[in-house]
């Protein structure tokens, strides 16, 4: 028989892992090519994984709720025939030492050369198309070996003696949690350290300091042990060591919440942001929308009309439709775009997501309104693809739907700005020297201070606000 193992596909946008939501097949089931076999969650969306093989399911390499790594075994299928099974070991591991990760192919470890020459008859690990073989895939990840001199022998020896882990992600997980990877006992072949080994080590309670160490209250070791114990998460029902209160729940962030947390942290850490805001009289805007609805039977949403003004504003202040990236040497690269991919914040049962309208600068208000509705529906159903939820260059956040006036929103990294819309409420407002009741909306703009100064940000915000105040005049010039 021939057993073929399908690796978790590259889901795009640099994603390296996905949470397995559910299997749609079981061991022993007959599957066809392109039949959906599982549902995974990544990039804040649900993605169905199709099977590239026809045959009988042999092994499912994971359970619901488990984080699966890209390029690791996902499912094995018995396709029949008399060829020898070419499936990898059940854990699908290929260890890399720390030095091997650093050198990225300076030396091809023993046994790997033959591995590289084999050709995978499967999908080539691409979600759509299944077009590339393993040789092509691995070439993109590893540079060609160089000729090594005598001075390299020490580094090679250290590489072979370094702690062996399943992949760099496991080492990163340990590093981010201040865990000494050399203290972890690997449960894989020949002591290979798996992700589960690191997670188990992180979950173990902190050891009490010895009697002699506890006497040395001023020692760094005692301080470190005390801090580690204090920061340890207590079990449900236990008292929290910091607050003394019973613990209602305690769990590691995963899936959507983990993705959101990482994105928000990156934005705050990388972007020096500033915020400007202004109150806007939108009475005329609401009246114009009502007239359009009466005349045509339907009208663009208020957010679509404001978005049209924002897109026009970005053409006049392009710095806000850009991004800054850090080069390998530490220098900053500022990239401006021709055209706008307009993101908008959408609250779903799975959490906050940001679908984006590609080529928003080409659409009128009615078309923008239709796209907002379509993408919001797809996102709430959890069916938005990676392209729907990535690649935006500017974002609008309508937090007025939550009945609040304003918010200093966090920029959707790596964009340069985010425009916020507050609720529309009636307020006393001075018009031509007279006090009147008008419909007022607060408009806020959070922007990356590296791409522009306050004058540019204020100019953009003022342009959008003026267009909202006098929409007929603004639409006549678009």
From TrEMBL:
Residues 165-202 form the Peripheral subunit-binding (PSBD) domain. Residues 82-151 are annotated as: Disordered. It comes from Glutamicibacter halophytocola. PANTHER family: DIHYDROLIPOAMIDE ACETYLTRANSFERASE COMPONENT OF PYRUVATE DEHYDROGENASE COMPLEX, LIPOAMIDE ACYLTRANSFERASE COMPONENT OF BRANCHED-CHAIN ALPHA-KETO ACID DEHYDROGENASE COMPLEX, MITOCHONDRIAL. Belongs to the 2-oxoacid dehydrogenase family. InterPro entries: 2-oxoacid_DH_actylTfrase, 2-oxoacid_DH_E2_comp, Biotin_lipoyl, CAT-like_dom_sf, E3-bd_dom_sf, PSBD, Single_hybrid_motif. Keywords: Acyltransferase, Lipoyl, Transferase. The keyword Transmembrane helix does not apply. Residues 3-78 form the Lipoyl-binding domain. It is an enzyme of class 2 (transferase). Its cofactor is (R)-lipoate. Its EC number is 2.3.1.-. This is Dihydrolipoamide acetyltransferase component of pyruvate dehydrogenase complex. The keyword Acyltransferase applies.
